[in-house]
Amino acid sequence: MTLDKDDYKASILEQVAAHPTVTAAATAVAAGASFGAAIFLPVLTGTLAARRHEERLAKFINDVSEELRLQERRLDELSDAQYQLIGDAVACALQTVNQEKLDYLRHVIRNSLSVDINSVNHAHLARVIRDISGDEAGLLMQTSVKPKVMTLSALKPKRMFTLDSRHHSYALLSGLISLGLVEKYTDGDANAHGGVYAWTPLAEVLHKLLSA
Fold first, then answer.
1. What is the SS3 string spanning 36-98?
2. Which residues contact 14 (CB under 8 A, 6 or more apart)?
3. pTM, two decimal places
4. Cα within 13 Å of Cα(152), Cβ side
5. Alpha-carbon gap, residue 163 to 170, rounded angstroms
6. 3-state SS assignment for residue 199
7. What is the rounded average pLDDT of the residues 47-52?
8. pLDDT tens for residues 77-115?
């Protein structure tokens, strides 16, 4: 049987690979292109920092591509929001030099296939993924370990945690709060430092995306 080229329909995996952002990244990496500051300051292209960035990005693209291939069946159910989030995460990776952040972005892409991403919170989620630092993401994941889950009146249970203001990661809380991931629930009493904090619904979604 001969398949006419007009009857050919690309697989979902091929469609993901053909995402404009993914295609641009893969092509540029293959060509040894530089990203980040080197885009605006070509003199930085040959620096060791730029080369390290290229190597990290090449590994990121290879790892992500392999993980997507291993889950090709799930790609058949990819929604538009999930597809867009993959492109957003890759676009963010192009400007990321922090290895921890790149690792989290790889998790986001892989987990996007199994986490429900609706069109309502997609824009906010995309901004959070772009702006959150590796350290802030790490703190959010740390607070998910043995949290206090409390039911407040008629509200759904919330993931709560305490953090001493003398803790070395306390300064990162302001970032999580500004991103809309954490809300302050109570101040510390006279004998305590810091306070009690609660995850927002968006933090619950992000946690699923960042999980290894």
1. CHHHHCHHHCCCHHHHHHHHHHHHHHHHHHHHHHHCHHHHCCCCHHHHHHHHHHHHHHHCCCC
2. none
3. 0.77
4. 10
5. 7
6. strand
7. 82
8. 889 999 899 999 988 998 898 999 999 999 999 999 999
Tell whether the torsion through CA atoms of 52, 54, 59 and 61 is positive or negative: positive
Our CA angle for 145, 113, 122, nearest 5°, is: 80
- What b/e readout covers 127-154, taking b as 16+ CB neighbours within 10 angstroms? ebbeebbbebbbbbbebeeebeeeeeee
How far, in Å, CA of 141 to CA of 29, rounded? Answer: 30
Q: What is the pLDDT of residue 199?
A: 93
Amino acid at 169: S
Q: What tokens appear for 136 in the block? A: 């802030």
Q: What are phi and psi of 160, to 5 degrees?
A: -115, 155
The pLDDT of residue 146: 62
Please say whether the beta carbons of 66 and 110 come within 8 A: no
What is the SS3 assignment for 115? Answer: coil
Give CA–CA dist 171/196, Å, rounded: 15
| Residue 28 · residue 35 · CB < 8 Å | yes
Q: Yes or no: say if 102 and 96 are a contact pair by the CB < 8 Å rule.
A: yes
Q: How far apart are CA 34 and CA 206, in angstroms?
A: 29
